[in-house]
Automatic annotation (TrEMBL):
Listed transmembrane segments: none
Pfam families xref list: FAA_hydrolase, Rv2993c-like_N
GO molecular function: acetylpyruvate hydrolase activity; isomerase activity; metal ion binding
Highest classification ranks of the organism: Bacteria, Bacillati, Actinomycetota, Actinomycetes, Micrococcales
Protein's name in the database: FAA hydrolase family protein
Keyword Metal-binding: yes
Keyword Ribonucleoprotein belongs to the record: no
Domain Rv2993c-like N-terminal, chain residue ranges per copy: 1-51
UniProt record, GO biological process: carboxylic acid metabolic process
Residue stretches making up the Fumarylacetoacetase-like C-terminal domain: 57-250
Domain of life: Bacteria
Keyword entries, A-Z: Hydrolase, Metal-binding
Length: 257
């Protein structure tokens, strides 16, 4: 099922997508289950929000596709390259990506996001998917010109609005049959199957959970394929994963102080 987080009548709620309606849930399904209130809200009357706001962290994987490592002139990693985004970077579908004044080369990175549903520590790959609540679409926005000078990626990857997520969480999705497609103003820039990942999702969960505990609501971004590039204010970036939906955001420049 597809779980959305939405605003309606100035109240933030959760619901199950059912055609053109949302079946309203009694609470956050990750903690309160799937009991419903008996209400239905038209999608036309609701504003979809980021389907999850991580209470703890967004864990990201760098260079998890060989072609992406090659296009940036980097070696293919022999083990996952992990970094974090703050939860303040998360925005939802339709929200603006803000190009910060500090960067003149802000780029898209379409990715599959994994939403953790149970406390996970020292999880083994063979049962790692048991800890997954669902999957959604992500854009790992990056200030490319800040990565190398900084020597690490916290600032380049962590600006406010640099982690669009949505439009919903799909709890029943076989990533092994999926692909990611990224468009800039309607033109396809990225398209690759998830089978091209160097490290698959079960291995990534095992690797990450061996280092730090993954908590319910944490999000794991699984890397981006080749085709990244810069966008400008006014551009629209769409990341599509068939079966999960289309995450659409338009960019703007930071407002002058």
């Amino acid at each position: 099922m597809k779980i959305a987080r939405f605003s309606h009548n100035d109240t933030i709620r959760y619901g199950v997508l059912d055609g053109t309606e949302l079946v309203v849930l009694a609470g956050d399904p990750m903690f309160a289950g799937f009991d419903t209130t008996g209400e239905r809200v038209s999608l036309a009357d609701a504003a979809l929000l980021a389907p999850v706001i991580p209470r703890s962290k967004v864990v990201c994987v760098g260079r998890n596709y060989r072609d992406h490592a090659a296009e940036l002139g980097n070696d293919v990693p022999t083990q996952p390259m992990l970094f974090f985004k703050p939860n303040t970077a998360v925005i939802g579908p339709g929200d603006a990506i803000v190009r910060p004044a500090q960067s003149s080369d802000t780029q898209w990175e379409g990715e599959l996001a994994v939403v953790i549903g149970r406390i996970a520590k020292n999880v083994k790959a063979e049962n790692a998917l048991d800890y997954v609540f669902g999957y959604t679409v992500a854009n790992d926005v990056t200030a490319r010109d800040l990565q190398k000078p900084d020597g690490q990626w916290a600032r380049a990857k962590g600006f406010d609005t640099f982690c669009p997520l949505g439009p919903a969480i799909e709890t029943d999705f076989d990533y092994r049959e999926g692909e990611v497609i990224t468009r800039l103003n309607g033109e396809v820039k990225q398209q690759a199957p998830f089978t091209n990942m160097i490290f698959d999702i079960p291995f990534l969960i095992e690797y990450a959970s061996a280092a730090f505990t993954l908590l319910p609501g944490d999000v794991l971004l699984t890397g981006t394929p080749a085709g990244v590039g810069p966008f400008q204010a006014g551009d629209t970036i769409e990341v599509e994963i068939p079966g999960l939906g289309i995450l659409r955001n338009t960019a703007r420049d930071a407002l002058a102080s």
